[in-house]
Design goal:
Blueprint lengths: L1 H15 L23 E3 L3 E6 L5 E6 L5 E7 L4 E5 L6 E9 L8 E10 L5 E9 L2 E5 L4
Parallel strand pairs: 2-8
Antiparallel strand pairs: 1-8, 2-5, 3-4, 3-6, 6-7, 8-9
């Protein structure tokens, strides 16, 4: 048991020393986009979602087995980081764009993005509305 605790502590120390790529709006930091998903990569165990619409968005994250893993309401301009997501598992990020600012009143749109966690970086997506409707993208266009 002591060996397991020591190994866990060593692994946590190793993971915490990995470089973290933050998502910055100033454009001065390098941003890496996952070629598979088109979503922006961030810190190692994180799925981060930002709402850049004028509606509230209810975010639901599903695991590989389509069970709900995390959820939350994002008002316009808000973002949230959900932690504890590890490779090589796949997750679905669902964004339900709602009529009311408290995430109630029914949906205006319902979109999903499926992502596989990369080895070192996490995933960041932004909910936007463009000429073709609502979508989840890797960075602001």
């Amino acid at each position: 048991m002591k060996k397991l605790i020591a190994l866990t502590a060593l692994l946590a120390l190793a993971l915490s020393s990995l470089p973290i790529l933050a998502h910055a709006d100033d454009g001065n930091e390098e941003q890496q986009i996952s070629p598979r998903t088109g979503l922006l990569k961030i810190s190692s165990d994180t799925i981060s979602v930002k709402n850049e619409t004028d509606h509230a968005v209810w975010i639901t994250i599903y695991n590989t087995f389509d069970s709900i893993r995390d959820y939350g309401c994002l008002k316009p301009g808000e973002s949230h980081d959900w932690n504890g997501y590890y490779p090589p598992l796949s997750y679905d990020v669902r964004a339900e764009v709602t009529k009311n600012l408290n995430c109630g009143g029914g949906n205006v749109a319902d979109v999903r993005a499926t992502t596989q966690m990369p080895n070192i970086m996490g995933i960041q997506g932004t909910v936007i509305k463009d000429g073709s409707g609502y979508k989840i993208v890797g960075k602001k266009p």
